[in-house]
Design goal:
- This protein has helices at 29-47, 61-66, 77-85, 94-107, 111-137, 140-152, 157-161, 166-187, 191-205, 214-223, 243-248, 251-270, 282-301, 318-337, 343-355, 377-395, 397-400, 403-423, 428-438, 443-455, 459-472, 477-489, 493-505, 510-526, 530-543, 548-560, 564-577, 581-593, 597-610, 614-624; strands at 310-311, 367-369.
- Helix 1 (29-47) packs parallel to helix 18, helix 8 runs antiparallel to helix 9 (191-205) and helix 22 (477-489) runs parallel beside helix 24 (510-526).
- The radius of gyration is 29 Å and the shape is elongated.
- With 627 residues, it is mainly α.
- The protein has 2 domains: 6-15 and 30-423, no CATH class; 429-624, Serine Threonine Protein Phosphatase 5, Tetratricopeptide repeat (Alpha Horseshoe), CATH 1.25.40.
- The protein has a two-stranded antiparallel ribbon with strand order 1-2.
């Protein structure tokens, strides 16, 4: 897995000069490169081939693709203004929004087509990674091994087959283009070439800020494989002569990274995605960061029980923290011992450093970790392990001949696991059922499985999952919203009031709060507190002025006060928003009270036409009008 040229990237090494995979000194390298690129594309497409059977899932796909009307408008200046100014879905990523808009106009909401596009982008990134590494290191076989690990490792399935994670694959594509441009710039430093680096980095940040650490990665890249910064001399002493020049040339990139971080923080804060130190104390965040590092390492070595959401425990046993810290310290010690080769330090710091923004020290969301967060960091480990294994095999003649077959066997196994992992993303029910099977105390999985069961019309079964979620996380807005609405519909306004107050006080999500405010208003109305009822109805209408429950509620408040013309107006608006027998009967009764007896008869007839069970609707209306 490595030629003599390949082994000259660290210190000069002794041992055999020819690789077991050597194909001859002048064996048409252009054709070899083309063949390896084609092979990467084909094996990636094969590993992800079952994605054509996958649908969208009810975890961001419904919001990014189905629930964002802006992406369905014509692609014009108005759309461009929106993508560059919106913080929708708690992110600022205009390139991603533009990509979704183009997809909609080309494919509509065709899930297989969008999934295949994600796979193609991922495969292209793998090809670019191979080309970047081969150009920088002169090591085609090691480079293609790293690229294949990146393309085929199951931990990357989440980033590739989750339609809403278009931002991840797009960002990584521009990351690879930035590395490619930087290698070109390093050969001859000109402003024109540097502009390509800046532009590619900007586009990547505007797709997803996960690549915000790229300026630091480029400093590592200067150490190895570009050899622009001889930080480790043969004696082991530090050589800082070129450090200031290399940092100064990256100042524009650091400024872009800082700007992206500020915009990301503003977007997350605006949508209430950030978490306070009261909710998640700093000690818990630090413990989770240490343990997460170890868990990412384990998932990369043994990719089993991978899933979409890993809940954050309320505390970590001391032995877990100590074990994680011990593993990190041991690996760091070994890496430092091998620093003369340079690639161990570069690969390890790549892994550690690129994970920092995603460890939850600055906490966004409630996950302990996520497979998609390893999409960039994993490359550092793949580099380190591949180069070390190749060097070791080259220095041990017994294993040199079998090392290519061992590498191929590992890649085949990873491909099979990836193919299997893709199947868990087939649909929402499969995804969340699997999540519950491989994790504990997963309130997010309970919520989303419950939501899918609601869509299937299995409300009672769904309610049991929401109740479990509320037990696991008493402040969970989603489960308390569903249980509270159920309590109100079943005639228990006291329980509904408690649940729905929890819901509206623990999320800023307008999609969740709209119905929560409306039903909370109904609970207050049932408890004869029309002042608070009106406040909540108005809050719901502020989110959606056509919310039928809130419109009916405003009518009930006016009806109770004897303001029948106003009640008629509210009930009429409710009928326009969503024709239903309850609003129709309430309208008829308000018209009767207002002296419009003849007109009310026609409205009663309309109510009868809207339902086969008029008696049940009439009983509900009588109950709603009781003072």
């Amino acid at each position: 897995m490595g030629s003599a040229k390949e082994r000259q990237l660290g210190k000069q090494q002794t041992g055999p000069r020819r690789s077991a995979l050597h194909v001859g000194p002048r064996s048409h390298p252009e054709w070899r490169t083309l063949l390896l690129c084609a092979s990467l594309l084909l094996v990636t497409l094969a590993a992800y081939s079952s994605v054509i059977h996958n649908s969208f899932v009810n975890y961001d796909d419904d919001r990014y693709l189905v629930g964002t009307p802006a992406i369905r408008q014509p692609i014009d200046l108005k759309l461009l203004r929106w993508v560059f100014t919106t913080f929708a879905q708690a992110n600022w990523h205009p390139i991603t929004w533009l990509s979704h808009a183009i997809d909609y106009h080309v494919f509509g909401l065709n899930a297989p087509a969008i999934h295949i596009e994600n796979v193609l982008i991922h495969a292209l990134s793998a090809v670019l990674l191979f080309l970047v590494l081969q150009k920088a290191s002169g090591s085609p076989w090691r480079s293609v091994t790293v690229a294949a690990l990146y393309a085929l490792h199951p931990i990357n399935v989440e980033s590739v087959v989750w339609a809403a994670e278009r931002k991840s694959v797009l960002s990584m594509l521009f990351f690879m283009l930035t590395l490619l441009a930087y290698g070109w710039y390093a050969q001859r430093r000109t402003i024109g070439r540097y502009l390509f680096v800046v532009i590619a980095f900007m586009l990547g940040l505007m797709a997803k800020p996960q690549i915000v650490t790229l300026p630091f990665i480029l400093l590592l890249w200067d150490v190895w494989p570009l050899n622009r910064w001889p930080v480790f001399a043969e004696s082991g002493s530090l050589a800082w002569r070129d450090f200031s020049r290399l940092v100064v040339e990256k100042i524009p990139l650091f400024l872009l990274a800082a700007l992206s971080s500020v915009l990301t923080w503003r977007a997350q804060s605006a949508w209430g995605a950030t978490r306070s130190l009261v909710d998640y104390p700093f000690a818990l965040r630090l413990a989770n960061a240490l343990v997460a590092y170890a868990l990412y390492l384990w998932a990369l070595v043994w990719p089993s029980r991978l899933t979409v959401f890993y809940p954050l425990p309320q505390n970590f046993p001391a032995w877990q923290i100590a074990l994680a810290a011990g593993v990190l310290l041991a690996i760091s010690t070994l890496v430092w011992a091998g620093r003369s080769r340079r690639y161990p330090v570069v690969g390890w710091l790549w892994f550690l450093g690129t994970l920092v923004p995603m460890l939850g020290i600055v906490r966004v969301g409630d996950a302990a970790m996520a497979d998609r967060y390893a999409y960039l960091p994993s490359i550092g480990l793949f580099l380190m392990v591949t180069w070390f294994a190749a060097d070791w095999a080259a220095e041990h003649t017994t294993y040199r001949a079998i090392s290519p077959f061992a590498a191929c066997a590992a890649l085949v196994l990873l491909s099979l696991v990836t193919w299997h992992q893709v199947g868990y993303w087939r649909d929402s029910k499969t995804l969340w059922t699997h999540a519950l099977e491989v994790t504990r105390d997963n309130y997010v999985a309970q919520d989303n499985l419950g939501a899918e069961l609601v869509n299937e019309g299995r409300e009672e079964e769904a309610l049991s999952h929401f109740r479990q979620a509320a037990v696991l996380n008493p402040k969970d807005a989603i489960s308390n919203r569903y249980v509270g609405i159920s309590d109100e519909n079943q005639g228990n306004p006291l329980a509904a009031r408690e649940r729905l107050n929890i819901a509206v006080h623990n999320t800023n999500d307008p999609e969740l709060n709209e119905d929560a405010f409306a039903y909370l208003g109904m609970a207050y109305h049932d408890l004869h507190d029309d002042v608070r009822a009106k406040e909540n109805f108005e809050a719901a209408l502020h989110i959606n002025y056509s919310n039928p429950i809130a419109l009916i509620g405003m009518g009930l408040v006016a009806h109770s006060d004897g303001r029948f013309p106003e009640a008629i107006n509210w009930y009429s608006r409710a009928m326009m928003a969503r024709p239903n027998p309850v609003a129709c009967l309430l309208l008829a009764k308000a018209m009767e009270k207002n002296g419009q007896v003849e007109e009310s008869k026609g409205v009663y007839q309309e109510a009868a036409n809207l339902t086969a069970n008029l008696g049940a609707a009439q009983r509900l209306v009588e109950k709603m009008l009781v003072k």
